[in-house]
Amino acid sequence: MPHEPLHFVRLGPGEQRRHAEDLYQRLRTRRSVRAFSPEPVPLGLIEYAIRCAASAPSGANQQPWRFVVVRAPEVKRQIREAAEAEEKENYERRFPEEWRHALEPFETDWRKEFLEVAPYLIVVFRIDYGIEDGRKVKHYYVQESVGIATGFLLAALHLSGLAALVHTPSPMGFLSRILERPANERPFLLIPVGYPAPGATVPRITRKSLEEVMVLR
User: Fold this and answer.
1) pLDDT digits (tens, 9 = 90+) for 116-169
2) Is the residue at 102 inside a domain?
C-alpha cells in the first residue's frame, strides 16, 4: 500500500491546553436524554455527525460500520413497537432482579415513547464480514472499531447542539428485519437524536474523579 505525507499541525503548549480544556468543558455537559421534542432537525447536521463517525480509526481500515438514519414516522413506529415488546419481556420476565435494581434510580421502564418522538433514529450496524467476488472477507476488530466510531458520533452530535440517547434494546434482531439489512450487518446501537423537550430533566449523577479512572505508572 503506498504511503503519503502526514498532515499534522503541531500546536504550541498554550494552545494545546486551551483546546483540551475547551473540549472537556463542552463534552462534560453531554447527557443522555429520554424526553425529545418533535421539532425538526436539519438533515445536514446528522450527515456531518456521521461523516465524523466514519472518520474514526478501524482495524485494518476495514471501516466495518453502517449508519441507518430513520426519519419515516411509520418506520419509527415499527421500531418502537418491536423494541417495547422486547423491553417488556426484559422488565417483566427475562432479566434478573439485579438488573432492574441497577436501573431503578433512572426511573425507566419498557415504554419507549422517544423512539417515535425524536425526529431521527440512527441505527448503528456492525459489519462482521465483507463480500468480494462472491466470497466472505473476514473483518477484524469489529466491536472495537464500531465502538470508537460511535464515540465519535455521540461527540459530534453533542457539539452540533443536539441531544441523543444510547439505547440498547435486547435482543436487537428486529432492527435488521425492519430496516432490511443484509446478513453480514448486525445491530450495534440505536440512537434517538433531536432537541430536548421543553422542561426535559435528567437524573442528577456524579462522575468518577480523574484519580478513580486514571492510573499513572
Assistant:
1) 999 999 999 999 999 888 899 999 999 999 999 999 999 999 999 999 999 998
2) yes
Give the domain CATH number at 73: 3.40.109.10
- Quote the domain boundaries for residue 163: 42-197
In this structure, what C-alpha cell is assigned to residue 133?
A: 467476488
- First-to-last alpha carbon distance for the chain, in angstroms, is 37
Taking the C-alpha atoms of residue 130 and residue 58, their distance in angstroms, rounded to an integer, is: 14
- Site of grid cell 483540551: 20
Residues 187 and 52: their CA atoms lie apart, in Å, by 20
Residue 26 included in any domain: no
Q: How far apart are CA 154 and CA 30, in angstroms?
A: 9
Q: What's the domain count of the chain? A: 1
Residue 90 CB burial class (10 angstroms; 0-12, 13-18, ≥19): middle
Per-residue pLDDT of 8-58, as tens digits, reads 999 999 999 999 999 999 999 999 999 999 999 999 999 999 999 999 999
Asked if residue 114 lies in contact with residue 165, where contact means CB atoms within 8 angstroms, the answer is yes
Q: How many Å apart are CA 172 and CA 216, to the nearest integer?
A: 39
* pLDDT at res. 90: 83
What's the pLDDT at 102? Answer: 82
**Contact (CB, 8 A) for 127 and 53:** no
Helix (H, G, I), strand (E, B) or coil at 146: helix
Q: Is residue 217 part of a domain?
A: no
CA 205 to chain centre: 20
**Does residue 32 belong to any structural domain of this protein?**
no
